[in-house]
Specification:
This protein is of the alpha/beta class. Helix content is about 20%, strand content about 35%. It has a single domain, classed as 2,3-Dihydroxybiphenyl 1,2-Dioxygenase, domain 1 (Roll), CATH 3.10.180. It contains 5 helices and 14 strands. An 8-stranded mixed beta sheet has the order 8-9-10-7-11-14-13-12. It has a 6-stranded mixed beta sheet with strand order 2-1-3-6-5-4.
């Protein structure tokens, strides 16, 4: 199992489409739902995890402490949002997903229902073809619980230049090869870029 769908929910879908096309990121982009806007949700990427039966999974997740945000979307017990899908194909270009929440160890246990494969002793895993890590949102001031989805690019410096040229912001340069460079798009949604040959 893995993330089988990824959708940007934003305030200006047309402008966002131009921005992400320049980066070679071709995932679906939709208008941020009115209910989400009313609840104060900013533009964001929503990842959907593959399940065999959405109805059964919804019941199981509610019992596990998730809050339903919509028919197939939830906030997990640690504050980060995700969705469900019965699709099974992997998301093209997605190579890493970092979970920022209130309890990294607890989040790893929670998401183990999707067959996380441990990679080391520092909360690093694989979920299908996607690298996954868990860290404490409170360790970085101003960071709220979320999933940071990172896309692979062949030339990271060129991609980061495209982010800035398109009106986005490079939040931080990667501290080591293979780690993501978090960015904001022009509407404020956070995403990451990782060098992938």
């Amino acid at each position: 199992m893995t993330f089988a769908a990824l959708t940007l929910r934003t305030t200006r879908p047309g402008e966002a489409r131009v921005f992400y096309d320049a980066l070679g990121i071709e995932q679906p982009i939709v208008a941020l739902p009115a209910a989400a806007r009313a609840a104060g949700a900013p533009p964001h990427w929503l990842g959907a995890l593959a399940v065999e039966d959405e109805t059964a999974a919804r019941l199981s997740l509610t019992q596990a402490g998730c809050n339903a945000r919509g028919p197939t979307s939830f906030s997990d017990p640690f504050g980060a949002g995700f969705a469900l899908t019965e699709l099974t194909a992997a998301v093209p270009g997605l190579c890493r997903a970092d979970h920022a929440g209130s309890d990294p160890a607890g989040a790893a246990v929670f998401y183990s229902r999707w067959d996380l494969q441990p990679q080391d002793l520092a909360h690093h895993f694989r979920l299908g073809h996607v690298e996954v890590s868990f860290w404490d949102a409170a360790s970085r001031p101003g960071v709220h619980p979320h999933w940071l989805f990172s896309f692979g690019v062949p030339d990271l410096e060129q991609a980061l230049a495209s982010v800035e040229a398109g009106g986005g912001e490079v939040i931080d340069r990667p501290p080591a090869p293979g780690t993501p460079a978090p960015c904001h798009d022009p509407q404020g949604a956070i995403f990451g870029l990782v060098h992938r040959a």
